[in-house]
């Protein structure tokens, strides 16, 4: 029986090729997913161990200690000298770092500084020129940063601790450049490398008296392997509670395992979901192929039954054929996927993502796609195998009828209807419950997760129910689409009639495309709603279009920003940080000095009519930017307590100013504090208030220049000011849109695999239809139908299948996208219900073009055979 199966496979090789391609694409995707995960793990392992330099043993805090809330010991409280003098220890390095601002007059930059090491082999960065600091007045800078600062060896730079939010510590040190470093292993990739400073400089920047007062964060060691068995236990006894010593390999494995549980495994699972989706779509293509194969072989199968073949043998023959096809196609898919990833890795295409790992093969790359591909192919052929067992010996004498006109079962319709009904109940119920909760302003912390899960489950059940019942409603849509197409001539009428001949197969093909298009449309709609909702929210919650701030934001930088195309008006103002008391609670605050309200009104979106900032008066917001609640000031006054030190944030009653408050509705001018107050700039000019920085408020007109261009140029300008940062709705919108667009592009690229397989299914359906309609095509040719008309007929058939399924998928996708958007975005603002019509149009155009291309090869087959031969063969 196996020899007969092989012969039948060879005879129908052309029919099996499209199904094989679908399997190959799906398994290639799965193989690529595992290889991508391996490359990511390899990259992370290299980065996680890069800070160990050439150390072979690591001292670090244990997870138990780090999660207990205990305060780490200082370096002076750890037996570091005894550890270093232990027999077998060649050298040690105590790890310390701090974010700093480096400046040289007009140029400045933010970077990370690490402490020097007595052994270059244990230093995480490489010295490429000069030497490590030999004293506390020296610094070795990253080579690229030195170019940015325009300094060379022997030049001076000023270093200050960076406390974030654009503010620097008041204590700064002037250091001489003694060398240049390079982060060859990516130990500090997110910082662009690291500078090296002396131990006393490190202590001063941390605000400590000496190195021994710094917290002990870890230690790397170079231990003689021949003496490690004795040295390691001895060192372990010297360690404080909560610290352990491990080999470099073990420390790297544990760090990678911790990340894999929360990161890399999640990435692999996320990508694997799309691989499974692609294989499910491929299964629909496979099922169609085997249905026609069995229908074509009914006479052969009947003859086999006549000469003694058992039902079980026929069943195993079809399943075996599927297994062979799945095995060959999956193997080719694994090879294809491996080749793609090899090209991607060796071309350094992943370097832009920070992935520098190599191509790592594991057993999962080969076994899982192979098993999955074979199993899915066999499962897809079960229905056809069961049909083969129902062939009787008498059918060997009947004419061959390959068309499958059986109606879908009632049980399937009932199950699908119940799924759709249950899904509608869950979805509508979740939406109504959330709407009611939002209207009543009740606490959503407990019930929101249940509502969200109910909505997700409801949409999933609706979609599954529609897929299950597709054999009922999809042919009706195809009939409507075909009726419209039939208006365009005789060839289109024939296409309309042909679509109705195999409703189940057409439905299966349409569902394959429906799945991909629905998901693409759903994600595109969700992204469009999220972007528009966030844009509306940002416009509501920010009163200044663009804000630049920093302790060293210079006037020259402000002037450069003011000259950018699209920036209408700017206000460069002194600021100071402190605190105020609101509603009996102390809140962080920023005091901003402005010339007058007329100037302020040009950059601040608020009603400032009747407001005058005279002596003893201050402008305060009506609502809290954090909570949205009304801010209540006792007796209409506020006492602003200025910080003694911009870095420490400490306050003193000696720096207190009391103002009469005028409240207006403006929000999020300084996003780092709870309350932003405006006063007359004379307070700063008279030194009643000492400025600890400056802020630039800008009004922007995006009709003259795009928001991206404005932000890009503004970021370039503030690069000259140490620690300066940009905020405001323009900046937030650009960042948010970039995130959404990146995620959208990634998801659509992943879903494109399923859409591609579905379009292969369209081509496969047409090919099978051409094979079935050999006599019909010959008859049409014999009565005068031209080759061009026959080609057009198949093209129309393909277009109807693709466009009807595509339009249905987009309608479903938009509906699901709106539901999902409401469930997620309504918590933050009024949801904008829009759709990405541009994306939807592109999907339909791609489907139409692909449908026309899919009809090319079946049409060539249909017109290649002369009418006389076709009639004779039929």
TrEMBL record:
<feature type="transmembrane region" description="Helical">
    <location>
        <begin position="506"/>
        <end position="528"/>
    </location>
</feature>
<dbReference type="InterPro" id="IPR025857">
    <property type="entry name" value="MacB_PCD"/>
</dbReference>
<protein>
    <submittedName>
        <fullName>Transporter</fullName>
    </submittedName>
</protein>
<feature type="domain" description="MacB-like periplasmic core">
    <location>
        <begin position="21"/>
        <end position="199"/>
    </location>
</feature>
<dbReference type="Pfam" id="PF12704">
    <property type="entry name" value="MacB_PCD"/>
</dbReference>
<feature type="transmembrane region" description="Helical">
    <location>
        <begin position="269"/>
        <end position="295"/>
    </location>
</feature>
<comment type="similarity">
    <text>Belongs to the ABC-4 integral membrane protein family.</text>
</comment>
<dbReference type="GO" id="GO:0005886">
    <property type="term" value="C:plasma membrane"/>
</dbReference>
<feature type="transmembrane region" description="Helical">
    <location>
        <begin position="452"/>
        <end position="474"/>
    </location>
</feature>
<keyword id="KW-1133">Transmembrane helix</keyword>
<dbReference type="InterPro" id="IPR003838">
    <property type="entry name" value="ABC3_permease_C"/>
</dbReference>
<feature type="transmembrane region" description="Helical">
    <location>
        <begin position="743"/>
        <end position="771"/>
    </location>
</feature>
<feature type="transmembrane region" description="Helical">
    <location>
        <begin position="839"/>
        <end position="857"/>
    </location>
</feature>
<feature type="domain" description="ABC3 transporter permease C-terminal">
    <location>
        <begin position="273"/>
        <end position="393"/>
    </location>
</feature>
<feature type="transmembrane region" description="Helical">
    <location>
        <begin position="365"/>
        <end position="388"/>
    </location>
</feature>
<dbReference type="InterPro" id="IPR050250">
    <property type="entry name" value="Macrolide_Exporter_MacB"/>
</dbReference>
<feature type="transmembrane region" description="Helical">
    <location>
        <begin position="322"/>
        <end position="345"/>
    </location>
</feature>
<keyword id="KW-0472">Membrane</keyword>
<feature type="transmembrane region" description="Helical">
    <location>
        <begin position="409"/>
        <end position="432"/>
    </location>
</feature>
<feature type="transmembrane region" description="Helical">
    <location>
        <begin position="792"/>
        <end position="819"/>
    </location>
</feature>
<dbReference type="Pfam" id="PF02687">
    <property type="entry name" value="FtsX"/>
</dbReference>
<keyword id="KW-1003">Cell membrane</keyword>
<dbReference type="GO" id="GO:0022857">
    <property type="term" value="F:transmembrane transporter activity"/>
</dbReference>
<keyword id="KW-0812">Transmembrane</keyword>
<feature type="domain" description="ABC3 transporter permease C-terminal">
    <location>
        <begin position="749"/>
        <end position="867"/>
    </location>
</feature>
């Amino acid at each position: 029986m196996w020899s007969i199966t092989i012969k039948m496979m060879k005879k129908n090789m052309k029919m099996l090729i499209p199904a094989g391609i679908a399997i190959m694409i799906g398994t290639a995707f799965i193989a690529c997913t595992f290889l991508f995960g391996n490359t990511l793990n390899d990259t992370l392992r290299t980065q996680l161990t890069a800070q160990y330099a050439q150390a072979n043993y690591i001292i670090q805090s244990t997870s138990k200690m780090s999660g207990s809330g205990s305060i780490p010991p200082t370096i002076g409280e750890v037996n570091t000298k005894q550890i270093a003098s232990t027999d077998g220890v060649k050298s040690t390095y105590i790890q310390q770092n701090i974010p700093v601002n480096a400046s040289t007059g007009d140029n400045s930059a933010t970077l990370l500084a690490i402490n020097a090491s007595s052994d270059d082999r244990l230093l995480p960065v490489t010295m490429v020129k000069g030497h490590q600091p030999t004293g506390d007045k020296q610094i070795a800078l990253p080579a690229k940063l030195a170019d940015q600062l325009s300094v060379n060896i022997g030049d001076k730079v000023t270093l200050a601790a960076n406390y974030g939010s654009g503010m620097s510590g008041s204590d700064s040190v002037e250091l001489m450049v003694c060398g240049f470093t390079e982060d060859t292993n990516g130990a500090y990739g997110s910082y662009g490398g690291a500078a090296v400073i002396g131990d006393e400089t490190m202590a001063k920047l941390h605000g400590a008296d000496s190195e021994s007062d710094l917290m002990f964060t870890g230690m790397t060691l170079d231990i003689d392997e021949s003496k490690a068995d004795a040295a390691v236990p001895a060192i372990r006894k010297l360690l404080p509670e909560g610290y352990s010593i491990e080999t470099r390999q073990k420390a790297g494995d544990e760090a990678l395992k911790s990340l894999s549980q929360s990161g890399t495994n999640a990435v692999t699972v996320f990508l694997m979901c799309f691989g499974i989706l692609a294989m499910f779509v491929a299964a629909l293509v496979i099922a169609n192929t085997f249905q026609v194969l069995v229908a074509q072989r009914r006479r052969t199968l009947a003859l086999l039954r006549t000469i003694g073949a058992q039902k079980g043998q026929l069943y195993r023959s079809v399943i075996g054929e599927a297994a062979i096809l799945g095995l060959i196609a999956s193997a080719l898919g694994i090879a294809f996927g491996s080749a793609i990833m090899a090209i991607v890795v060796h071309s350094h295409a992943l370097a832009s993502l920070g992935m520098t790992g190599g191509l790592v093969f594991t057993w999962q790359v080969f076994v899982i796609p192979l098993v999955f591909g074979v199993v899915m192919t066999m499962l897809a052929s079960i229905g056809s195998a069961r049909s083969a067992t129902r062939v009787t010996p008498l059918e060997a004498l009947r004419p061959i009828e390959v068309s499958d006109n059986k109606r879908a079962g009632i049980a399937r319709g009932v199950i699908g209807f119940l799924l759709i009904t249950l899904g509608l109940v869950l979805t509508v119920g979740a939406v109504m419950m959330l709407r009611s909760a939002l209207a009543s302003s009740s606490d959503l912390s407990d019930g929101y997760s249940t509502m969200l899960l109910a909505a997700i489950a409801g949409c999933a059940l609706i979609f599954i129910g529609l897929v299950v019942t597709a054999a009922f409603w999809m042919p009706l849509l195809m009939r409507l689409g075909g009726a419209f197409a039939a208006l365009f001539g005789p060839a289109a009428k024939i296409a309309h009639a042909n679509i109705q001949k195999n409703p189940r197969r057409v439905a299966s093909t349409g569902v394959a495309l429906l799945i991909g298009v629905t998901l693409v449309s759903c994600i595109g709609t969700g992204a469009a709603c999220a972007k528009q909702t966030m844009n509306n929210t940002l416009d509501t919650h920010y009163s200044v279009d663009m804000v630049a701030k920093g302790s060293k934001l210079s006037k020259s930088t402000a002037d450069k920003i003011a000259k950018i195309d699209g920036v209408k008006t700017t206000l460069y103002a002194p600021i100071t940080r402190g605190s105020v008391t609101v509603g009996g609670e102390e809140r962080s605050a920023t005091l901003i000095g402005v010339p007058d309200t007329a100037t302020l009104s040009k950059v601040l979106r608020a009603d400032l009519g009747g407001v005058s900032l005279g002596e003893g008066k201050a402008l305060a917001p009506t609502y809290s930017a954090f909570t949205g609640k009304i801010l209540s000031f006792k007796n209409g006054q506020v006492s602003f307590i200025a910080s003694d030190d911009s870095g420490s944030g400490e306050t003193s009653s000696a720096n207190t100013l009391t103002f009469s408050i005028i409240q207006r509705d403006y929000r999020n001018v300084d996003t780092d504090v709870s309350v932003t107050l405006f006063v007359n700039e004379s307070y700063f000019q008279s030194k009643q208030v000492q400025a600890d920085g400056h802020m630039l408020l800008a009004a922007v007109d995006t009709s003259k220049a795009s928001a991206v261009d404005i932000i890009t140029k503004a970021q370039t300008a503030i690069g000259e000011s140490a620690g300066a940062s940009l905020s405001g709705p323009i900046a937030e919108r650009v960042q948010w849109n970039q995130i959404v667009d990146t995620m959208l592009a990634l998801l659509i690229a992943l879903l494109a695999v399923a859409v591609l397989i579905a379009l292969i299914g369209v081509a496969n359906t047409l090919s099978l239809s051409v094979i079935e309609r050999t006599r019909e095509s010959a008859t049409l040719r014999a009565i005068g139908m031209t080759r061009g008309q026959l080609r057009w007929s198949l093209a129309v058939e393909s277009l109807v299948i693709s466009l009807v399924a595509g339009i249905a998928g987009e309608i479903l996708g938009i509906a699901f996208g709106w539901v999902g958007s409401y469930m997620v975005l309504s918590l933050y603002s009024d949801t904008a219900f829009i759709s990405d019509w541009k994306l939807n149009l592109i999907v339909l155009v791609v489907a139409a073009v692909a449908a026309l291309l899919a009809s090319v090869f079946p049409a060539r087959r249909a017109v290649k055979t002369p009418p006389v031969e076709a009639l004779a063969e039929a």
